[in-house]
Description:
The structure is a single chain. By secondary structure, this protein is α/β, with parallel strands linked by helices. The protein has a domain at 7-91: STAS domain (Transcription Regulator spoIIAA, 2-Layer Sandwich). It has helices at 35-50, 70-83; strands spanning 2-4, 13-19, 24-33, 55-67, 87-91. Strands 1, 2, 3, 4 and 5 form a 5-stranded mixed β-sheet that branches. Strand 2 (13-19) and strand 3 form a beta hairpin. Helix 1 packs parallel to helix 2. The longest helix has 16 residues, at 35-50.
Amino acid sequence: MHYGEALGTRSVxxxxxxxxxxxxxxxxxxxxxxxAVLDRIDTHIADFLAGTRQVLTIDASSVARYDDRLPALLGxxxxxxxxxxxxxxxxxxxRVPDGDAVPDRSPAPAGGAVVxxxxxxxxxRRGVAAADG
Length: 133
């Protein structure tokens, strides 16, 4: 299953890795993220893991559509980095159902994240943080 614009016969994508300051590594994703692109992203992540940088940022703010396995790849990456005391930051992955829906392309604040507060009366799971408020 894919999210965003319907996948056609032609998919255009870009995956690039950049040094983003001391200790930081940036992977930029653009266009359509399908299965082949997921493999390329995984290769870029492996390159980061082979180095000594501590912070990996994945910028998905210009992703038009993506394969539903992208969140699982990001989750595995977060786990791998966490076991090495390294940090993963993700910029704007928007879930849009198949069809004619168009994602909100308003810019996200730099380094921002959306946090869903824990509803009152629900217990926290071990290792899961919730926003206060």
